[in-house]
Write a structure and sequence with these properties.
Blueprint lengths: L7 E7 L7 E2 L10 E8 L2 E9 L4 E2 L1 H12 L20 E7 L4 H12 L6 E7 L14 E4 L5 H11 L4 E4 L4 E3 L3 H11 L3 E10 L5 H9 L10 E7 L2 E6 L5 E5 L12 E4 H7 L16 H11 L3 E12 L5 H25 L2 H18 L15 H26 L1
Parallel strand pairs: 1-3, 6-7, 6-9, 7-8, 11-16
Antiparallel strand pairs: 2-5, 3-4, 9-15, 10-16, 11-15, 12-13, 12-16, 13-14
Helix pairs in contact: 5-8, 7-8, 8-9, 8-10
C-alpha cells in the first residue's frame, strides 16, 4: 500500500512488446520511493501493481518479474492481438465543459483529444462562464456558450449541438489515451443493446500527499480491469455480468462504484435525448457539487437500459494537489452522493423503498475497516477525511432541494 507521505512515480507499460527500463528519477525533492504502474497487454489493461524503489531505475527484467509475480494469472507471457474494431465506427462527439479556471489542464486535455485514433469525431468545448465573458476561440474545436452555471447545464448544451450518434463526456483536467474514444465506440458497436459505456480512470500523477490519499479514499470509481455489463434484475437490483468470465452477480441498484464517472462516459445520442439529459440541479458548479453522472446512470438502469464498462477506454485524471483541495473535494463528493439519491427518489418515489432496505447495511459499512471504501486505506489515512465525507453526506439532501429551488427562480 502506498506511503501517503512520499511521491510515487506513475507509469503505463504494455507487455505486448519488449519492456524497457523505467526511469523513476524525480527532478524535485523528495525522490520517488515507489512506482504505481498500469500494466496493459496490446492496449488491454491487465491490472495495476506497486513497486518499492531501491534505485532510480526499474530495469526491464525487474518489471517483467513483478508483472509475473503480481499479475501472473492475468498475463499469458506473450503478445496478444487487440480485438479489431469494426470497419466503421459511428460518428462521435466529445463534450468538454469548462469555466477556464484550469487553462494549463484544459490545453493538455484538448491536445490529447486532438490525437485520438477515432476516424470520425468532433470536440465540443462548452464555455460555462457568465454571458458577459468573451466567447473563447480554440483552434480545432467547436466552442459553444452555456452561461447558466454548472457542468450539467454545460453538458446538456454540448449534447444539444452534437452531431455524433455517440456522445462522450470528459472533464478539462484529464488526459485521454489515443484509443479512448475508439474503445468506447467499439463497445457500442459490439453490443447494440447497451445505451451507455463508461471507462477506466487512473491517476495522471501521484506527486503529493493529497493525490495519494485520494487514491485511498474510496471516493473515486471502483477500478476494474474486466469489461462489465449492467442490466436491471429487479426494481432495485442490477445484474453485473463479467464479459470475459461470463460470471453474473445480482447487486443493489445503489451500489454505484462500478457504474462509472462523468470524466469518462458516453451515451447513444438518442437515449440521452430521450432521458432528458443530466439533472441541472446536480453536479459541479451547483450547491450539490457532484452526483449528476451517477443519477443519470441509475435512472437509465432503473428504466431497463443496459450499461457497459469498458476498461480499454482509458482516461488519466489530475487529482487535486493540496490537502485543502482534497478536503473540499471529499466533502463535495459526500454532498453529491446523497443529493443524487435524493434526486432519483424525488423523480421516482419507488426508490424510497429500495433505499430504505439498504440504508442500515450501508451505515454499518461506513465504519467497517473491510468495506469497499475502507479496504485500500493505509494506517495513516486521516480520520478527519472520513468525517468530512460524512458531513457532506448529511448536507446532500438539503443541497439538492436548494439547487432545485434556485434553478426554478
Amino acid at each position: 500500500m502506498l506511503n501517503s507521505t512520499a511521491p510515487v512515480r506513475v507509469a503505463v507499460i504494455d507487455v505486448a512488446g519488449p519492456l524497457a527500463d523505467l526511469d523513476c528519477e524525480r527532478a524535485a525533492q523528495p525522490p520517488y520511493t515507489a512506482a504505481w504502474i498500469l500494466v496493459c497487454q496490446a492496449g488491454r489493461p491487465l491490472g495495476s501493481m506497486e513497486i518499492a524503489l531501491r534505485t532510480q531505475v526499474i530495469s526491464a527484467a525487474e518489471l517483467e518479474r513483478e508483472v509475473r509475480r503480481q499479475l501472473g494469472d492475468r498475463w499469458d507471457g506473450g503478445p496478444q492481438a487487440t480485438p479489431r474494431p469494426p470497419t466503421t465506427l459511428a460518428r462521435a462527439s466529445v463534450v468538454v465543459p469548462t469555466n477556464f479556471a484550469r487553462p494549463a489542464e484544459l490545453r493538455r486535455c484538448l491536445k490529447s483529444l486532438a490525437e485520438l485514433d477515432h476516424p470520425d469525431y468532433e470536440v465540443i468545448v462548452v464555455d460555462n462562464r457568465p454571458a458577459d465573458a468573451p466567447l473563447a476561440d480554440i483552434e480545432g474545436v467547436r466552442v459553444v456558450r452555456e452561461s447558466r452555471p454548472g457542468a450539467s447545464a454545460a453538458r446538456n448544451r454540448g449534447a444539444s449541438v452534437a452531431t455524433g450518434e455517440i456522445i462522450a463526456f470528459t472533464d478539462d483536467d484529464v488526459q485521454a489515451h489515443p484509443g479512448w474514444l475508439s474503445a468506447l465506440g467499439s463497445r457500442f458497436a459490439r453490443q447494440p443493446h447497451i445505451s451507455a459505456v463508461t471507462g477506466l480512470v487512473v491517476p495522471l500523477e501521484l506527486e503529493t500527499q493529497a493525490q495519494i490519499l485520494f487514491e485511498q479514499s474510496g471516493s473515486g470509481p471502483d477500478r476494474g480491469y474486466a469489461p462489465l455489463t449492467f442490466s436491471r434484475a429487479g426494481r432495485f437490483l442490477v445484474r453485473r455480468c463479467d464479459e470475459q468470465g461470463g460470471q453474473g452477480q445480482v447487486r443493489s441498484l445503489y451500489r454505484t462504484g462500478e457504474f462509472g464517472i462523468g470524466a469518462n462516459m458516453a451515451f447513444r445520442t438518442a437515449v440521452l435525448q430521450a432521458s432528458g439529459g443530466f439533472d441541472e440541479a446536480l453536479g459541479p458548479g451547483r450547491p450539490t457539487h457532484s452526483g449528476e453522472d451517477l443519477a443519470l446512470l441509475v435512472e437509465l438502469l432503473a428504466a431497463g437500459h443496459q450499461i457497459g464498462y469498458e476498461p480499454t477506454a482509458i482516461i488519466e485524471h489530475q487529482h487535486r494537489t493540496t490537502m485543502a483541495e482534497l478536503d473540499r473535494q471529499i466533502h463535495d463528493y459526500g454532498v453529491g452522493f446523497t443529493a443524487m439519491l435524493t434526486a432519483v427518489a424525488l423523480r421516482n418515489p419507488w426508490h424510497v423503498l429500495g433505499l430504505a432496505a439498504i440504508v442500515p447495511a450501508w451505515l454499518r459499512s461506513l465504519r467497517a475497516q473491510s468495506s469497499d471504501k475502507s479496504v485500500n486505506r493505509a494506517d495513516d489515512y486521516p480520520p478527519s477525511l472520513a468525517r468530512t465525507e460524512l458531513r457532506g453526506m448529511t448536507a446532500g439532501p438539503l443541497a439538492y432541494l436548494r439547487a432545485r429551488r434556485v434553478r426554478s427562480l
